[in-house]
Amino acid sequence: MRRKIIFQALLAMMFVACGGSDDVITPAPPVPDPPQPKAEVAIAFSGSLGEGESESHARTRATTNPLSATHQTFYAWAYKNPASGNTETVMQNYTVNWQENSAGSTTTNSRGWEYVNQQESSTVPVQSIKYWDFSAADYRFFGYAGSGVDATTSTSVSFSFDVDATTPNLETLTATTPLYSKLWYNTGEAISDNIQPVQLVFLQPYVKVRFLFRQSEPPETIFTLSGITFGPTTPDPPAVAKTIALTGTFTVTYPLSGVTTTEETWVVAPTSPGTADTDYLTAFTEDYYVFSEDGFNREDVPATPAGEKKWYTVLPAKDQGTYTLTVFVNGEERNVVVPAQYMNWQPGYEYTYVFKITERGTVELEGLQSAFVPWKTDDGDHPIYNW
After folding, report:
1. What pTM was computed for the model?
2. How does residue 316 score in pLDDT terms, banded at 50, 70 and 90?
3. Is 319 exposed, middle or buried (0-12, 13-18, 19+ CB in 10 A)?
4. What is the DSSP string of 331-369?
5. What's the CATH fold of domain 207-235+282-372?
6. In the chain, where the domains are located
C-alpha cells in the first residue's frame, strides 16, 4: 500500500512539472554547411576593332567588326591589384592566336582566341593557363597587334612604334598594321563565376580629318567657292609652314603601380621638320561640298559628283592651337578661326568640320562632328556620335 502511494505521488509531481510551465523546448538550429570554394574560372580573350558610340557599344558589335578579320595574333599584358600599389603580373607579352572554328574547344578559348602554349619561341617561358583571382581588388588588361612595336615595362608599360600616314593603302588594314588596345579595367566586384572574356578593343594610331561646306537654307544665291585652305593659324615654329604631322613615333602608356587611373595615355613625336616634304602638311585644301537641288555648286570643278568627300589621314595631335579656314566666296575672301578646343585629334577617330555659307555669303563654323567608327575605305552613311 505504501508503494502505491509513493508511485502516485511521483506521478503527480511529473504532471506538475510538465503542465505548470509555459516554456517551449526549441530544437537546436541546424549546423550550416561550410562555404564551398568558388570554382576556378579561366581567363579568356576576345578582340575587336574600335567601333560604335562607346567602349561598351563596341563590345556588343564585336562580331560585326572582329579583329580576326585582319589580325590573327595579338600580344597581351595583364596585372592585378595595381591600384593598391601591390601590382602582380598575370601575363606579360603573352601571344594570343586566332584559331578558326575553335571557340569553346578549351576552357581558355571561348571566342576563338587561345593563349595557352602559344608562345612564339622555345626560349620564351611556357604560357600556362591563368585563372581569375576572386579576391583581387582590380585587374588591368591591354595589348597590341601588328608589327614594329617596341614594348617597355617599369612602373608602367609603353608601346612605341613608327607611324607614317603617307603609306599607300593605309586605310586597308593588314596583319602588319600597328594597333593598340584601350585599357581594359575592372574592380573586384566585377569578378564572378560568370565573368565574360576580356574584350580588348583595338585602335589605329591615326585620325581622319575633313571639312565640308553647307549652304544655309533656303539659298537665294548661287555661290562659287575657291582658294580654300584649312590649317594652323600660326605655324610652329613660324619658319616652318609644314605643321600637320604625317610621320613620327606614337607611344601609348598604361599605368600600373599605385594609381587609380583607368585610361591609357599617348604622345606623338613628329619627325623633325625639314627632313622630307611628306613629313608635314601646310593645310587641308580638298573639301567636301554638300549639294542640293537648290543649286549649291562649285563651278571651278564642274565634274565633281554630288557628295564628294576628301578624307585626310594624319597623326593624332593635342594642343594644336587655333586653325583658320580661308575661302573665297564668289571671289571675296572669308576667314573663320576655329578655337583650339576643337582641334584635339584622338587616335581612332574621324573629324568633320562643318562650315555654313550664309545668305550674305559669309562663312561660319557650324559645328564639329566626331565619330569613333570602323576604319575602312568605303564611306557609307553612318551615325555621327558627338563626344
Report:
1. 0.77
2. very high
3. exposed
4. TEEEEEEEPGGG--B-TTEEEEEEEEE-TTS-EEEEEEE
5. Immunoglobulin-like (2.60.40)
6. 45-203, 207-235+282-372
